[in-house]
Amino acid sequence: MAEQSTPLMPHATATWLVDNTGLSFQQIADFCGIHVLEVQAMADDLAGSKYTGRDPVHAGELSLAEIEKGQADPEYRLVMQRAPAAVNRTKGPRYTPVSKRQDKPDGIAWLIRNHPEVTDAQIGRLIGTTRNTIGAIRDRSHWNIQNIQPKDPVTLGLCSQRELDALVAKAAKARPEGLEPADPRETSDRDRLIEELRAERTANEKAAAEAAQEAEAAAWLETRRAGEETQGA
Hints:
Elements: H1 10-20, H2 25-32, H3 36-43, H4 64-72, H5 98-101, H6 104-114, H7 120-127, H8 131-138, H9 161-173, H10 184-232
Helix pairs in contact: 1-2, 2-3, 6-8
């Protein structure tokens, strides 16, 4: 059986279904494509306050008749009425979350320092910024230049390693002769710095993954403890 699509906003939809239907937690979890413990947390008001409910009936993703079938049979698996339309990325600057935008200058400075073969236009497309900003950082006229610290844009979450590697490879092929390092030691130092940065990024990613696993385990134990206390009461 092919896996069906999930709602456009799974957690918001799950919140609405918890508050407005008699569906089981497992039915809601299966329909929304999330873990049943997340639904349990919403019902216990541990996570529900983070999401504003989204009505899947109004959105055309679920019918009232389908909800009634699910309420009548806890084993019934809800069927989506209409899958959300795919969102295609339009041309234009890359979208960067607000929380990441302050990191852009650091990522730009890193690219300018470590990959001089990459053009301003290529940096702009990769990071999602303007040529004016890149130029200001390049000639050190940026208003916040004293606080800009070159940092790997992959570590900052501004692009993926695959995107960065592809860009560098493309730029290297088009590198003008004048940009070749005059001193072999310069290439050696740069390669060593790149290896150090990659090692640091790997360590950071590993630490973040371990922290996420610990947080998930703690949340699961807390949810289980709350459920046991409710049953005991």
